Amino acid sequence: MTYINDPREPQEEIVEQTPARIRAVRVINALVHAVCWIFALVLIVHILLVFGEANPGNGFAQLIDQWSRGVSLGLRNLFTPEGLKLRTLFNDGLAALLWLIIGGVVTDLVSRIGLPGPKRVWYRRTLS
Predict the structure, then answer these.
(1) How far is Cα 65 from Cα 63, in angstroms, rounded to an integer?
(2) Backbone φ, ψ for residue 45 (5° rounding)
């Protein structure tokens, strides 16, 4: 008599192997997603430092200011309201939002191009 979970019999393990192409697309999407979020977070931290009136001579504040200049997508002087706080909020806020949109679009494009999708079937019918 053989039992279902007989320890004397070899056990089978079902392992789903992910193709290398799918793994590569996932890694690329994860990297793009992480980089875009990091850039957006740097811009958000810069906005918070400006609103909190952080000491501009502080090393951390200088680092964030320099890095936010590099990732602002050229939008540093797009809006020019009177106050520094509003200017920073509008310009860096828009750049942060654009980084999140760019990340979403790029990861979607990489997935559409890199992953196999359902086969398209074209039907042709004649009208009688």
Answers:
(1) 5
(2) -65, -40
Exposure of 95 by Cβ count < 10 A (0-12 exposed, 13-18 middle, 19+ buried)?
buried
Task: Using pLDDT thresholds of 50, 70 and 90, give the confidence band for residue 84.
Answer: very high
40 is a domain residue: yes
Integer Cα distance of 124 and 62 in angstroms: 64
Per DSSP, the three-state class of 47 is helix
Domain assignment present for 44: yes
Would residue 34 count as lying in a domain? yes
Q: Which residue type sits at 57?
A: G
In a domain, 27, yes or no: yes
What is the pTM (predicted TM-score) of this model? Answer: 0.75
Task: Tell me how many domains the chain contains.
Answer: 1
pLDDT digits (tens, 9 = 90+) for 28-77: 999 999 999 999 999 999 999 999 999 999 999 999 999 999 999 999 99
- Of 109, 101, 88, nearest to 44 (Cα)? 88
Domain that holds residue 45: 23-50
